[in-house]
Design goal:
alpha/beta; Rossmann fold; 3 domains; 6-stranded mixed β-sheet; 19 helices; 20 strands
């Protein structure tokens, strides 16, 4: 064993993994140094998730080797990986929603009292200390995880990984649902000082440059190379990821005329923390919503689609007053209203079904023959919409949980479009997907609007709002605080409005 290998925290050498004829990883190699925050970049489907599962002990590789501080590493499961100092904060959260915060933090070993029985008091006290150590003392350890917001569940997933990672910490899209990224950045810097190696997976190059010194890029299951981030431009990295130069991302459509028909009208809507929200979305228009965490964006979308009850106010779809009790009912008002949910894992996909089955669910009654829906028919009908979102036809026969997160998101967007609804509500439609997949989703949304559809979308990424929206509304304190359109939509302006300081405030809220 060479001294160079001992100085490395982690060595991943020629790792390979195939699923039947599908090659997920082909000779992937990465070296991580002690105390290094090392980025892993690549498009969805490049092999990042498979590599994470191998390092976490979830999947066994077909070939290659791994070592940690010079010792061979071949975990037999997540618990075995943790015992060897390796822990992962997964992008698709692994928390148990029916258990409490405390139980999720102490599992798999619940503390026991003098009589050998499980001691919930000890578990609560232990969890409370952990939460305090990680600046989450406002969490009640006895709270069921299932009632937490996605952002809070993401924080808990991250904290649980930090508590088990003494040698290698893997953070898979850790900021995808976080409003306050500085909380995480401070934890990463603290862990780095403990000489823990950190593998950081993110599609947000800005935060990658903030935290990481080097990056390894995967493409089509192979490690294309490792670069010093100080010497690589975003364009260089994009070209390594996708094998081509970046496409133009700015919106080219002209502003929609004020005379265009109103597709969606919201008047005086209140519910949750929403207060008297009113706006219109016109036919052919893409309207963005910007908001910091907890400003009413979830209440707005869930109330419009019938998942939460409004206290007052209402909506009209194509001029038809709509009393919506469920997402299914929303399809039958006017030209229809369809919803893409926030969390694809818990609210979107049906993991046991094929991708084609997931896509055709809204129209299954229309395509059944004698009460039976044949897989070949599902794939044939799903093919055209799959092409619209640039989802490869071969994925239609796969179970949807075998797809990368980006391809799952494409399939869910295709499902929403297959409903036939002409107004779409999209909640953070590119959360946790790579830059190439984002471009596919943007183009599908623009094409939908250009063909006469209407889109209302919330995004946690400001560049997305700038490049995609014809108009952008900022929610603050449960109200529409400000509204911008065209060239007036820029990041500095939106940032000011997000914290309650902006010219152009509306709804009686002072700028």
């Amino acid at each position: 064993m060479g001294t160079d290998e001992i100085r490395l925290a982690v060595r991943i050498a020629n790792i390979a993994k195939s699923y039947g004829p599908t090659v997920a990883l082909d000779s992937v190699s990465i070296d991580l140094r002690p105390g290094e925050v090392h980025a892993l970049l690549g498009e969805n489907g490049a092999g990042k998730s498979t590599l994470v599962k191998i390092l976490s002990g979830v999947v066994t590789p077909d070939g290659g080797s791994m070592s940690i501080f010079g010792k061979p590493y071949a975990p037999h499961g997540i618990i075995d990986a943790r015992a060897q100092g390796v822990a992962t904060a997964f992008q698709e959260l692994s928390l148990l929603p029916n258990l409490s915060i405390a139980e999720n933090l102490v599992l798999p070993k619940m503390p026991k009292g003098k009589l050998g029985l499980v001691s919930r008091r000890t578990a609560t006290a232990s969890a409370g200390k952990v939460l305090n150590d990680y600046a989450l003392s406002h969490f009640d350890p006895d709270t069921p995880v299932g009632v937490l917001s996605l952002s809070d569940r993401q924080r808990l997933e991250i904290v649980r990984a930090f508590t088990h990672a003494s040698k290698l910490l893997i953070l898979d899209e850790p900021t995808a649902a976080l409003a306050d990224v500085e909380w995480l950045f401070e934890l990463v810097r603290r862990q780095k000082n403990l000489q823990t190696a950190i593998l950081y997976i993110s599609h947000r190059l800005g935060e990658v440059r903030t935290l990481c010194s080097r990056a390894t890029i995967l493409r089509n299951g192979r490690s294309i190379g490792t670069v010093e981030l100080s010497g690589a431009s975003d364009a260089n990295i994009f070209e390594m990821m996708v094998g081509r130069s970046a496409r133009e991302t700015t919106a080219s459509q002209p502003l929609v005329a004020d005379t265009a028909p109103v597709a969606l009208s919201v008047r005086g809507l209140s519910g949750g923390i929403l207060r008297d929200v009113s706006f219109d979305v016109r036919r052919g228009e893409i309207v963005g919503i910007a908001a910091l965490e907890g400003q009413g964006q979830r209440d707005l979308f869930r109330t419009m689609i019938g998942l939460s009850k409004a206290k007052s106010g209402g909506i009209e779809i194509d001029g038809v007053p709509a009393q919506i009790a469920s997402p299914g009912a929303a399809l039958h008002f006017g030209n229809g209203l369809a919803y893409l949910p926030e969390d694809r894992k818990s609210e979107g996909i049906f993991a046991g079904l094929s991708t084609a089955s997931n896509m055709v669910l809204p129209i299954i009654s229309r395509i059944a023959q004698g009460g039976v829906v044949w897989p070949a028919s599902e794939r044939r009908i799903a093919k055209k919409t799959a092409e619209a979102v640039e989802l490869q036809e071969r994925y239609l026969q796969f179970k949807i949980d075998e797809l990368s997160g980006g391809n799952q998101q494409k399939a869910l967007l295709a499902r929403v479009m297959m409903t036939g609804a002409r107004t779409l509500l999209l909640f953070d439609p590119t959360r946790g997907v790579d830059v190439g997949t984002k471009q596919s989703i943007y183009e599908a949304i623009r094409k939908f609007a250009a063909d006469g559809g209407s889109v209302l979308f919330y995004s946690s990424e400001l560049p997305e709002l700038v490049h995609l929206a014809h108009r952008c509304m900022v929610l603050y304190g449960g109200r529409v605080f400000a509204e911008y359109q065209g060239d007036a939509i820029d990041e500095p302006t939106i940032v000011g409005a997000l914290i309650g300081h902006a010219a152009g405030a509306v709804n009686g809220v002072a700028a």
